[in-house]
Fold this protein.
Amino acid sequence: MPSTDPVILPILGTGGTIAGASTQALDNVGYTAAQISVAQLLAAVPALGAEPGVAFEAEQVAQLDSKDMDPATWQALGRRVAAHLARPEVPGLVITHGTDTLEETAIWLQAVLAPTKPVVLTAAMRPATALAPDGPQNLLDAVRLARTPGACGVLVVAGGRVMAAADVRKRHPYRLDALAAGDAGVLAWIEEGNVRLLRPWPVATALPVGPCAAALQVPVTDWPWVEVVGSHAGADARQVDALRAAGVQGLVVATTGNGTVHRALQAALERAQAGGCPVWLASRCGDGVIVGPAAGPAAAFSPWQARALLQLWLLQQRVAGPQGPAAAGLRRPSA
């Protein structure tokens, strides 16, 4: 006989605006993030009690404003996600998160775990105390997505949009539709609790690194130091030289346009790369990918996603030894 035991759906809380609180219901910017527990968030969505055949497990992994996300929290979250996914009674799970660094956490989890079950991140642009909070609907949609047969990988849901980890970007500082999927577009829409799939689930996501079990094992104090430097009008090479002198181990350049780098930075970046510091190029443009001679491992990612990926790549190199072509990054810009 088939089992009548309910499936277990863990809801992991990390804080963010979705758990934020303000003294004024009309104040959507003066709130304090990460004030309400994930258990309270679940209790505030009565519709979750009507989900058939599912038992929820609320777990507070962290309680912080996502602008303050850090490697220790990533590692703790990754370990808990991996542990839950290994349980046969768990079809998927949900993570509540802030929007500010959500794209970084999503790509980090995808690269580290490459999950074959759905790991769904959701968030909010208004605090839980707002007159019309967006968090409850997003949380309900995330639960529906985490239980969807065939869904897999790290996914993000907000405002009814389902986005893949590699595609999601925060594109607006205030609007409810702040999260978008750029050129790739949404994977699916969630409408009245139904998932309308537009294209296949990302069974295999092309990333320059992963899976990276070392990220769950190596103490965060031993993770490589990687920073983002910006190419812009009036860029100064001293930022690169200062970081190298301080011991930085990898650099991502937020380039102008199609992977172009200010001439004042070029020589310093070439010196850094020649000295064993990988340099990856990621466009500061909101949409699109770098094409042509400047394309490299980070061509399709935001500079902030690329920083997380380069850190993982360096960690993997340290553990497993050189893996080949992903080391290439910096290219001499075209005229």
Q: What stands out?
A: The chain has two domains: 7-197, 224-327.
